[in-house]
């Protein structure tokens, strides 16, 4: 039986620090908000916030007009911007502005989702998996998820998406129902030089001077979507000390992991994977210097790599910090003592930590070969990604819904198709670069004599195999992909495309490792994490927030600088600062449009600012709103101290970095002369 | 007063495991040798071993004929081989063979040293530094070192080198006197394709199929040096289970560090530095693909980078291994309990571990900026290296010997000059690549707003500054370097060379950080490590061997495979295996000379093999000798399990990888037709 949740906040005494927490909208920390800021959001405020928030792939956004206008970061829309560009018409470097709807261009592969409803399905999931272990447990979980989401979506697959969301590591399962927007168009993007001014050196730093914004518009039935809930713009923006909310989709935090999991994460998820990322960064950095076209086609990927690299390095620092680890150990010890002091809990939950630790040993044995095979790290190419998707879809679609791999259940197929039939360009030279490198790393990491390496390479070098695959594949052709999709297993089996043949050849081995990882690691971790979550609820109720899960959360805080050793970092920068930082050389070169407009600009206009809001990757593009639900800024980054936020929130220095709403309007007006957009946002 | 040591071995009961240990030749584990192998080397055996062993920069070698012929690894001589090559005459890819003395070519920058004498100077050093702290301690240590080495070298600077060697981390100080060979010539090198067959994928692995050998010859007064002690060749080589010795110069181990030091090493020396190395690897890998000339000029550096990367990754695995760390912790706890149980030790030594731990905190604060400035990581270019050497030499030569930086005391100047006036080519394009990258990393790591970054870059980008420096420098001209050297401080001050000006500009800041690091970290660690060494001696005498210090050591062991999970790894490979592994594609392509000779070769001839000898980086090029002092092999690598050997010796799987002496002779004879060399080695 499913229990419908009302959007009513629970009000239990909390453990979290001031401003800490990424709260689900059905469980806001009302008492704390009241006590700290004298503010208690009402049901309408909460509902409007939820319905004005949008999820983008890996990012966040918000509705800012009744005509479907969506604000997000430039770096969240840059995939689309790059895909719409060509060597001759480069919107990445030159920017883009549609002055009327007919000039807005369709993003080749961008689906937006808006959360509409939350249902508690914890009991359904518990019942379905009760008493099961390993693969059976995993399969039962997949099956109930397929059933629940199918019922939730009903007949409206095109416009509805439903996900079962695992909160508190299995402490609660909620069913999230989204409105799907599959037709998204580009409206405005400034030049990358100003969207990402300061580039990698300034990334995760502050003071900052970035106009990291893009405007998109969602369409339905070929017309701008009719939107009832959206955030109006505040021209004045916030004052120092003013309360701020961030509503968005933080991707993932690890604040509730066990010590054994944290150590795995340190050694494998960070130390090991950062070395790989660093090397790939070197390869792509050097490649992009070989020609302007190489730079154009590689820069989007490079941004992702550098962002991941820097974020990972910051997170690693926290896991190498003996003080932090001691703090986590103390928390874990306290919780275990709490459990052991209650016989009924001890009996049921006492062994959970050791079980998870043992699963980590299996993980250490399996991770490398599983990443290479099932994780496809050996085959870093869009062609392989498409080939595997086609091969697996053919196999899975032939099965009953509840028996499929979860990424191919009926309710997910529209998203799979959107991805598979995207017209986003693929650049063969860049694909060769990535694939050669990843095949080389496969050989290095697994060893020359590993059976999988021998199967893949035979007597070929990574370069030779790459050429053989990429020179002959037809997967760049969307029509060919449609033929294979429609042709099902038979078409796949008959295809002579070298990537399809490769994906087929490595399928058995890949699935074997996936299954072993599920059985020997994931199922054990999931089951025992549920137990630990129950212990936490017994200890402190739901007055704690769940780890981030790429679902909608609200964080609260205020506009505030911080102390950096002896330096006091002020919370605001202004336009004058951007001109002072300009060196004329990448990545510190202001674009020509800014140079030209300098005389017209109010140089004292606040431009970027920081707040104490608790956010993490995935929150990029989130609006900052004030108590009135008005947009006062656009989150685009965290400072360097926010990176440890994956593991804990340190209010002394963890800061959200945002573009000021007044700065956005000033730039639209004086630099970009975007009159139509301004009118849509402000009515003027 | 100095106490002359005789080459007599101490015979105390030992703590070390069988085959464990890199023993100084004046303290061999005689009882253990006798007990385990029934072999007790006599004074003549030991003396002959010492005088037949040679130290190369970062490597080892041995005399193998009375005419100054030196055997080492190809990868130890590859600097010379590459420096003697040109785009047209590529000895790296084609190999090199001098059929008579007149064809032997002078290596532009290679000095060889042979250890001749060891003197205990512990008391002299102790007296000089007694009661001193911080910088005074460091300066007194430098001064006594300058005095002792000056007296040791006497008037014979050209042919004598003396070093004070710090053993047992300050437990003992010995004065090592070397014969210098400054005129080294290339005699033979096979093609790199076979010297490094399997390339990076096979590096630190086994089975192997490498002919990683080069022959050099030292000259004196323009003629081949007259050598009394050398190792004869064994054509048969060793049998499985046969005893083997390795004599060579292992660079550095960390088996006697405190837990606090191991954790620093993990976080800074490995995790942090490996990320940098991985990225540089990616940059250089991609650069070398841009043209054959780029590959030729970058490959020597790339080998070093990849070797360091893989070795570091292996070492890191050990420091991330909870079992290993627990073992070290137990050892440290036991030693501390031993100290605390004896009031006189507790009073004097009890605080040493905590003092070292506090120094590590300072190290964490200082390492990054010190590496960038004093460590010159910001300026990764041979031009800067030369510029700094010239700038510092001018400053230091003007001071009294005992007051100089230790690398510029009188007895070191010949080596400085050899380095400074080397005719080794410098490749401007490759220098640009490295310098641009390192300046970029400086900006990233210290931050755009760091005072040092602003001083170095001003408003220039790393690319712009690099071009400005490299396009205008004259430091490629050896004559210009000589002019600056001879002109001293005045010439330096007047030079308009951009690298000289840069080196001068960053000198004050660099020296400041050097001094802080010495005062706040090194002096404290040195003083307290001496105390801990005294505790160890009190606990177990000198029946333990000191950590490796790039000085002559002997290790013993035997020819033996190992168990890899369920696989049994056999100790020998043969020529047939090399042909089986050949794919025709780099790095698994046998050279044409091998293909041509296949019919003539004895394919069953043992080629590479493994032993249990305890070695580490720096041992490359070491001979393996049998009880009769005959060469049975040439060490060129360790297996993957040997990498943890930096921290402990695990006899179950730690293996030395060597070329078989019979394999060397067979290849010389049948593939390279090197009759003259064969005759010199075997008399036939």
Automatic annotation (TrEMBL), chains A, B:
Keywords associated with the record: Aminopeptidase, Hydrolase, Protease, Serine protease, Signal
EC number: 3.4.14.-
Top EC class for this record: hydrolase
A Pfam family hit: Peptidase_S46
Record's signal peptide: 1-18
InterPro entries: Pep_S46, Peptidase_S1_PA, Peptidase_S1_PA_chymotrypsin
Family: Belongs to the peptidase S46 family.
Biological role stated in the UniProt entry: Catalyzes the removal of dipeptides from the N-terminus of oligopeptides.
Name of the molecule in the record: Dipeptidyl-peptidase
Species: Undibacterium hunanense
